[in-house]
Amino acid sequence: MNKNSYRFLARFAFFMGVALSAVTELRALEDPFEGSWEVDLVKSKFASGAPVKSAISLYESLDGNRIRYTAQFVGVDGTVVTREFTAAFDGEDHAVSGDPEADAVALSRLEPRVIMGIYKKKGRVTYAFVRAVSADGKSMTARQMGTNSKGLPIYSEVLSYRLEKNPFPQKGKK
Q1: Total tally of structural domains belonging to the chain
Q2: What CATH code is carried by the domain that includes residue 126?
Q3: Given CB 3.0 to 4.6 Å as the disulfide criterion, which of 15, 17, 43, 129 pairs with 144?
Q4: Is residue 171 part of a domain?
Q5: Closest CA to 162 of 14, 33, 21
Q6: Does 105 lie in the same domain as 65?
Q7: In sequence order, what DSSP letters do the residues of 76-119 get, joined into one string?
Q8: Whether residue 153 sits in one domain with residue 106
């Protein structure tokens, strides 16, 4: 190899490094929902008061168009409920476990920081939500409404804050 070939390879390697760094940074910013979140029960509103003592969730981006969602709710009586699903943003039904009001969810990404979901039980829509992550990525708001299996209204406006640590150490990236 001559001197020009080495210069070309060095420049090519440098630009590839810069490009890979940019792609890595863009990938990190690709899904603003990625990470752990805790509900602020004081600043959130629920149709009939706060139905839980605490709620935390974990969003894991799987391939840019799918997420794995895990949420843990501690009821006022201390009962722990874990809701989980893996779903694509394709508007199709995907299985949900741990939710007494839903056995399927259909997700759509409306904007990079906004997702919408429709929960169903035995094919019937029970409730829908819209979740949006703030521009700084530190908070998320969620609004959901529908009707539960007892015919009572489901309505909430929920504010969550990003957690630094994964609350589910057995799940997600360590």
Answers
A1: 2
A2: 2.40.128.20
A3: 129
A4: no
A5: 33
A6: yes
A7: TTS-EEEEEEEEESSSSEEEEES-TT-SEEEEEEEETTEEEEEE
A8: yes
Find tokens 């792609």 and name the residue: 23
- In 94-130, which positions are buried (b, 16+ CB within 10 angstroms) versus exposed (e)? bebeebebbbbbbbebeeebebbbbbbbeeeebbbbe
Residue with tokens 């990470």: 35
Q: Are 58 and 171 in contact (CB under 8 A)?
A: yes
Query: Which residues, at least 6 apart from 135, have a Cβ–Cβ distance to it below 8 Å?
Result: 113
Residue whose pair of structure tokens reads 């009962």 in the numeric block:
79
Residue with tokens 């981006």: 61
pTM of the model: 0.77
96, β-bridge pairs: 85
Structural domain for 146, as ranges: 32-163
pLDDT digits (tens, 9 = 90+) for 20-40: 444 444 444 579 999 999 999
User: pLDDT tens digits, residue range 141-150?
Assistant: 999 999 888 8
Question: Is residue 24 within 8 Å of 17, Cβ to Cβ?
Answer: no
